[in-house]
Specification:
Its EC number is 1.11.1.7. It is a single chain. This protein is an all-alpha fold. The protein has helices spanning about 5-20, 40-45, 55-60, 70-75, 90-95, 105-115, 140-145, 155-160, 160-175, 175-190, and strands spanning about 80-85, 125-130. It has a two-stranded antiparallel sheet. The two termini are about 20 Å apart.
Length: about 210
Amino acid sequence: MPKCGAVSTFCCGTQVPTNLCQYQFYNVELGRRDGKVSTKANVQHHLPHPEFNLDQLNSMFSTNGLSQSDMIALSGAHTIGFSHCNRFSSGIYKFSPINRIDPTLNSQYALQLRQMCPLKVDPRIAINMYHVTPQKFDNQYFKNVVQGRGLFTSDQVLFTDARSKATVNLFASNEGAFQSAFIAAITKLGRVGVKTGNQGEIRIDCTRPN
């Protein structure tokens, strides 16, 4: 039986929820070796922030060989899952000195978010990323963003910035195009930083280095 590292196991794990959420199967490339160092500090600077603008998003993804279209397709994963209120509260309470609420947001949606996440809310409170089809991996994320219902600033900017708007419109109107782009992008993401030869290890316990 071939050995499978924790990274490969994790990659397979990303496929399971998408299948359970009525999304098509895709082939996951296996055989990745695991790193010998794993810390929170190493991860924090490699994840996009909810308040990123398009230039910041493109810069982060391009360092890993991912295009703007790849980044937009991967953002579509926000169609399922949840977020804690503090991850997007700045967009509905303190966006800028002039506008408390992000003016690119649908005003009714912003008020709904305020009702679900009032000021000084329990930090453990979380809400669904999107409420139309929260358990289905579809293109509803893009439809919501077109309507000004992007939960994160980094979501809504994909539509408000003219450089990415056309791709959002495409994915919102053509679910097949989104699915194909997502599979291609997540496959490319799975190839980032692959260790070869004697690099890394195959963990005995997925939760920690050997």
